[in-house]
User: Fold Ornithine carbamoyltransferase from Loigolactobacillus zhaoyuanensis.
Amino acid sequence: MNHFANRSLLKEIDFTPNELEYLIDFASHLKQLKQQNIPHHYLQGKNIALLFEKSSTRTRSAFTVAATDLGAHPEFLGKNDIQFGKKESTADTAKVLGSMFDGIEYRGFAQETVEQLAQFSGVPVWNGLTDQWHPTQMIADFMTLKEHFGHLKGLTLAYVGDGRNNMGNSLLVTAAMLGVNIQIGAPTALQPSATVIAMAKKAAADSGSQVLVTADPVAAVAGADAVYTDVWISMGEDISAHERIKQLLPYQINAELIAQTGKADTIIMHCLPAYHDQKTEVGQALEAEFGVTALEITDDVFNSPQSVVFQEAENRLHSIKAIMAATLGDLFIPDQWFK
Ligand code: CP
Ligand code: NVA
Assistant:
C-alpha cells in the first residue's frame, strides 16, 4: 500500500501539511542513503520524461540524477526537440507521453499546461516550475530549514523582493501550511494576489502560523530566522528591466537589511540563479546607472557563512528523488500515517 501512488505534484495545496512534511523527511532519508552509497533503486526499469519549455540548471540536473539514482531512465525533451507547443496540443502530447513514460516532469509557463498534462497522461506529473508555483523547490527549501533548525513550526521566514512570482506564491502558501510564520516584503504592485493571500491565511489558521504582507522591507525581515529572495525578473516576463530595478532596489538583501532582523543567526536563502556578481558586463552597466553592483542580493551576503543557498540547491536532488519515489515507487506508505 502506497498512500502517494500515482499522484501528481502540481501545486503545494494539492497535498496536506502532513504529506508535505513526509516528503521532506523522506528526502532527508534518501540524502543519507546517497551519502552512505546505499542503493535505492525504487524506480528500476521506469522511464521518466523531462519536458522543459524554459531553461534550467538545478531542476533539470536534479531530475536527471535523481531518476538515474532511482534506477529509472530520464529523457530530456526540450521545447525545440518535440512537436509540443508548435504542431501538437497539450492533451495529445500528454496522451502520447503517458503511453510510453511512467512519469512526466514539466517546466514551463502556464499552470494550466501542467494540470492538463496530469489530466490527459494518466501518469504522475511533477511541476518543475510554472509562472504560478514551484512546488518541488518547496520540498528542498523546507527540508533545508528543517536541517538547519531541527524543526519547522514556529520559525519565521521573510521573503523580500518580487512577491507576485512563483517563488512568492509558493513560499507564502507552503510556509503557512507548515506552521512557519511568513513575512512578505514587496512593493504594493508586486505583492501576492488576494487569492493567494487568502489561500495562505486559511492554511495559517489551520497550522497556527502568522502571515504578514507589507511594503516595508524592514518590517518584513523583523525577527526572521531566514531571509529569502529571488530574481527580480523571472523567466518569460516581458517588462522594462529599468522600471523593475528601480521599483525593487529598496528590497535588496544586503548587510544593512539583514542587520534589521534583530537576530545574529538569521540564515540567507535563494532558490538560484541569483544576480549578485559585480564582475560582469551587466554589473558594470548597473553600477553606472543605479550605483549598485548587484540586484536582489549583494555578493557579501550571498557568500556569507549564514548563506545556505548551495545546501538548498543540493537538496533539490534529494527532494525531487523523494517526490518521484513516493508517487511512482512500490513503497509501503499506509494511509493511516496521514490521518
Ligand atoms: N531553482 C531552480 O529552479 O533553478 P533552475 O532554474 O536552474 O532549475
Ligand atoms: N522566479 C524565478 C525562479 C527561478 C527558479 C523564475 O521563474 O525565473
Observations:
- The radius of gyration is 20 Å.
- Residues 129, 165-167, 230-231, 234-235, 271 surround norvaline (ligand 2) (CB under 6 Å).
- The chain has two domains: 12-133+315-338, 156-224+226-265+267-305.
- DSSP finds 13 helices and nine strands in the chain.
